[in-house]
Specification:
The protein is of the alpha/beta class. 46% of the residues lie in helices and 16% in strands.
Length: 429
Amino acid sequence: MRLVSTRDPRHHASFAEAVGRSLAPGGGLYLPDPLPCFVDLDHLLERLSPQSRRAEILARLLGEEFGRAETDRMAAEAFDFPVTLVPVAARCYALELFHGPTLAFKDFGARFLAQTLALLRARDGRDRTILVATSGDTGSAVASAFHGLEGFRAVVLYPKGRVSALQERQFGTLGGNVRALAVDGSFDDCQALVKGAFADPDLSSRHGLTSANSINIARLLAQVLYYFDGCALLREAGLGDPPVFAVPSGNFGNLCAGLLAQRMGLPVRAFIVATNANTTVPDYLDSGEYRARPSVATLSNAMDVGAPNNWERISRLHRDDHGALRQALRWGHLSDPETALVLRELRDLGYLADPHGAVAFGVMRERLGLTETGIFLGTAHPAKFADSLEPILGIPVPLPAALAEAQARPLRIEDLANDPAALREALGG
């Protein structure tokens, strides 16, 4: 797989090189160029098991760098949990991506990244520090994927007081080779600290810094796979028309992965951008003026991003053409009161959603054509947000065993000043 920088197409890298670097020189992000196009969609979507399909797609994408036995092993180790498609309303389905070990869709990318880096370490013997900013679920998934993995330490930065208590427990109680740093600031501040660390060549080289945020191409590539799962499950349910995917969007890696899948040949009618009160991208699509801004805290906290990293990739895929983006996407946003209303409506339909899925469903209803089939992404188990959901819904939210275990463990967190020098010191200078 050949990858190029969003900021300089003359700069290219192999997949292994891009995974290790995370950011391209000059701060660009990596994108596949050219993108492969799969023509045997019936075979991929109808004749293969989910595990076989994921392994086959990975082998086609990475076959020039890894052997088939290696890609099969990575797929088997990383994606050992199901994806489910649940009917919610007429021609509306939830694609549940939260059946992995940390009960969030981030398990796809984090576990695949861990498998990829472990394979690379077996080749080069290099220890690495995984540095990640999280607004919730990314930190949990990355901490779980790398916990106890020889040759790696994981450092998780998160905005103090702005993730759910259960999310904090998942990544802040592991200890060992996992450190949780509570930053006095927003997610955007955490993200800026991480990007600044990677931009420091001395610091990055000394500690073998590697990003586990969706700026890392390995995470993005793993997320492509569940869009194929969604279309396959829809065909299994007897619906062959290309679906409309509604994507709850914060840092926009999820949407970018879907757009890549579409360009690889996956039959998708459209993508719907669904955000909360952090409306940087919807406002840009409306006006043509891109204006990043400080993030706003909401019920759907994983989407509280005012300067989304992956929008650069999406814009570049469309040649930075505002008109082309408007043609390719549909969009909308919900306030917290509107999100609460949708959560109750979904409860009355017999479906328990988390706030992010509710935002996607609510926007999808507004943007879906009468004869179209819609799939909204369920990105996290609702129990992760029980504290905010139970007062809204008026019913108890059952706690899965994995979350109950995390809740019982003591917190092992450290405060970190919102300052690059503080992060440098925490990493070891």
